[in-house]
Amino acid sequence: MSDLHRTPLRDFHAAHGARLVDFAGWEMPVQYRSILEEHKAVRRAAGLFDVSHMGEVDVRGPEAGKFLNYLVTNDVAKLYPGRVLYSPMCYPSGGVVDDLLVTMRGPDDYFLCINAGNVAKDLAWIREQSSPFAVTITDRSDDYALLAVQGPRAAEIVQSLTGAKLGLVQYYHVTEGTVAGIHCLISRTGYTGEDGFELYHAAGDAVALAEAVLAAGAPRGLELAGLGARDSLRLEAGYPLYGHEITQDISPLTAGLGWTVKLDKGADFIGRDALVAEKKNGAVNKVVFFKTGDRRIVRAETPVLGANGTIVGRVLSGTLSPLLNESIGSALVTVAAAREALVVDIRGTKLNLHLVKPPFVELKKATQ
Amino acid sequence: MSNVPTNLCYAKSHEWLKVEADGTATVGISDYAQSSLGDITYIQLPKVGTVLKTGEVFGVVESVKAASDLYAPAAGTVIAINAALDGAPETLNTAPYEGGWMLKLTLSNPGETTTLLAAAAYEQLLG
Question: Contact B90/A228, CB-based, under 8 Å?
Fold first, then answer.
């Protein structure tokens, strides 16, 4: 795996027994002990995730806010310093380039967090779109490491390491401060459906920060958690993953992310015409979430069959929900078929898909 | 390092087989196999009475990562299956050689097990 990118924590992971795999060109821990046990630890207490493979981008300049509002579908004008926004970023077709977090750090100063597998593509896209605007785009991906502390005890654990008043940092807000003496952008965000923090910090501090969080967290039930648990947690919470529920061919409206598409935000944005048309005419397909009542995992690309046995769609993501103890997933199906019975064939056994409005499990996190 | 008990024999496809005192055989998957699969979430086993040929697919073991076929390490008739695995497939991860056993067979040809790998040879195969 010598050609792969490594986060500053690669040796930390190996020393803690991680199974390292190629994820989007990065050598990343998929699990330490058990995906299922790590998942349950995050829902029960807390988990520590290395997500340093994610990309970070500074967008600065007198037209930074105006540019970002043109770039993404959600309403950047609503941001104020310290506020974070989740948004898709679309092509003119309405298909998705990527989904990202936009943080307003100060006037004319924004910070993006983008998917690891999309960094090169996103940067090229963002730079191309930015040319008419007075903005500076800086790739900061190599400068930052990113640790996510997630779970009902995450706040208690991070608070034990910082003087920042975390009780004043609401969900989808950030503050600057030191954690275990290391300067961090402390963001109350995450991808698990639990309360928690994402700690952006200098790459050179990653090992010291990870050791400090692990030491403070372990007595409180925190476990190291890998990308395997990150994926099952996000699916249980009903969050989209780029390349699965949202792609170049699956618009945010089709994906059920209408709340992130502000057609009436008072500014034009890339993809708006296509999304207005999709909303007006109705989409052919929609993303649905399902559970099966069975433990057999319904894997991505499995054909979905309608009532009369014809193919009406395909599975986008599938896993076993460690909390429900049954397989769950998402699928892209025709809008008409979504009103009728849906079935998949798993090695000769027909399983009915029971449609669910996510999250699949009760989540205690604050709302955005 | 994988645990490879010396009192068992092994198929190249990572099933183990133990010849019991009464001449029947118990079958499961190796520690290496369970570890490679990761968290095991589902196991599909044949019905008692099924007659298996050597190398025939007798079931499926599924983990968070993937589903894999199980191959009969020797020919025989299924006389028992480990029904407890249905509700607790994770037993395969924690105890692949004890609680994680899958089948008991009456061997069609008891001499056939000599073609399987001894522990040392299986360890060599794992590298």
Answer: no
Which of A228, A296, A347 comes nearest B64 by C-beta?
A228
Q: Which of A197, A213, A236 is the last residue of a domain?
A: A236
A367 pLDDT band (50/70/90 cuts)?
Answer: very low
Could you read off the pLDDT of A253-284 as tens digits, one per residue?
Answer: 999 999 999 999 999 999 999 999 999 999 99
ipTM: 0.89
Q: Which of A231, A232, A295 to mutate to test the interface with B (most CBs of B within 10 A)?
A: A295
For B14-34, the pLDDT digits (tens) are: 999 999 988 899 999 999 999
Which is nearest to B77 in space by CA: B57, B47, B102, B97? B47
pLDDT digits (tens, 9 = 90+) for B74-86: 999 999 999 999 9
- What is the nearest CA distance from A295 to chain B, expressed in angstroms? 6
Residue of B39, B44, B60 to mutate for A, most A C-beta atoms under 10 A: B39
| Mean model confidence pLDDT for chain A | 97
Is A116 among the domain residues?
A: yes
The helix or strand, by DSSP H or E, that contains position A202, with its residue range, turns out to be: strand A196-202
- Interface contact flag, A295 B64, Cβ < 8 Å: no
Closest Cα partner for A47 from A146, A152, A144?
A152
A164 and A69 in a single domain? The answer is: no
Count how many domains chain A has: 3
Find out whether A236 and A193 touch, Cβ atoms under 8 Å. yes
pTM above 0.90, yes or no: yes
Fold of B15-126: OB fold (Dihydrolipoamide Acetyltransferase, E2P) (2.40.50)
Residue of B nearest to A319 (CA): B64
Report the residue from B38, B41, B93 with minimal CB separation from A297: B41
Q: Could you tell me if A30 and A168 lie in one domain?
A: yes
Q: CB of A71 within 8 A of CB of A269?
A: yes
Please tell me the number of Cα atoms within 13 Å of B39 on its side-chain side. 23
Question: Could you count the other beta carbons within 10 Å of the beta carbon of residue B29?
Answer: 27
Question: What CATH number is attached to the domain comprising A187?
Answer: 3.30.1360.120
- Distance CA(A36)–CA(B94), nearest Å, equals 13
Cβ within 8 Å, pair B38-A320 = no
Alpha-carbon distance A333 to A331, whole Å? 6
- Same domain for A160 and A46, yes or no, is yes
B90 interaction partners in chain A (CB closer than 8 Å): 36
